[in-house]
């Protein structure tokens, strides 16, 4: 009887652990305002058992200079769009920028996880920045796009968008 109870509790714990890792998350969930930062999106599973074949990340307008990292076996595409508010970068006025990065290929089987990275320049203002992610699979898709309302947390959302907590700016060296 004790053995059966232990097995049941072990199985329930594994299911809860899998559910807790079921979202697309950022490897580093905090960064300093105004800094260049490597966003690493962790894809923890496929779509109800189906392998992942594409990952698309939307870049919020106040995040600039997105440069995706190549991945063996995956093709990268970027969508460059006009900005509502141009910005200055190294003496040049930038009026259009990368607004979406997508990787297609793989496939990434459901039994494995992988990471997809983009270097960006973060906004000068502290606060939460949400990145909407679409995960396409051989069969099905997951849209990780839910953003909590003001005063709420992501807890309880079925498909929360990955969030980066941008902290107050610190005096640091210029890196990129």
Calculate the mean pLDDT score and round it. Answer: 86
Q: In whole angstroms, how far apart are the ends?
A: 59 Å
The top level CATH class name: Mainly Beta
* Major beta sheet, strand line-up: 6-7-4-10-11
Strand content: over 45%
Number of strands: 12
Question: Can you give me a brief rundown of this structure?
Answer:
This protein is mostly beta strands and about 180 residues long. The chain has one helix at about 1-20, and strands spanning about 25, 30, 35-45, 50-60, 65-70, 75-90, 90-110, 115-120, 125-130, 135, 140-145, 165.
Describe this entry's structure for a reader.
It contains one helix and twelve strands; from the N terminus they run αββββββββββββ. With 176 residues, the protein is mainly beta. The chain has a single domain (23-167), classed as Uncharacterised protein YcnI-like PF07987, DUF1775 (Immunoglobulin-like, Sandwich). Strand 10 and strand 11 form a beta hairpin.
Chart the SSEs and their pairings.
Blueprint: H1 2-20, E1 25-26, E2 30-32, E3 36-43, E4 52-58, E5 64-68, E6 74-89, E7 92-108, E8 114-121, E9 127-130, E10 133-137, E11 141-144, E12 163-167
Parallel strand pairs: 2-12
Antiparallel strand pairs: 1-3, 3-8, 4-7, 4-10, 5-8, 6-7, 9-12, 10-11
């Amino acid at each position: 009887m004790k053995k059966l109870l232990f097995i049941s509790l072990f199985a329930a714990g594994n299911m809860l652990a899998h559910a807790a890792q079921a979202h697309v998350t950022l490897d580093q969930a905090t960064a300093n305002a105004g800094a260049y930062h490597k966003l690493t999106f962790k894809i923890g599973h496929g779509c109800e058992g189906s392998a992942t074949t594409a990952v698309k990340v939307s870049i919020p307008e106040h995040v600039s200079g997105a440069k995706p990292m190549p991945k063996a076996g995956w093709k990268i595409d970027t969508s460059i769009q006009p900005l509502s508010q141009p910005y200055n970068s190294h003496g040049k006025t930038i009026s259009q920028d990368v607004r979406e990065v997508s990787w297609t290929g793989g496939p990434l089987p459901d039994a494995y996880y992988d990471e997809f990275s983009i270097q960006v320049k973060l906004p000068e203002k502290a606060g939460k920045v949400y990145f909407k992610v679409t995960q396409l699979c051989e069969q099905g898709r997951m849209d990780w796009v839910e953003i909590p309302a003001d005063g709420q947390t992501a807890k309880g959302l079925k498909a929360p968008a990955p969030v980066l907590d941008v902290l107050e700016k610190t005096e640091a060296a210029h890196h990129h």
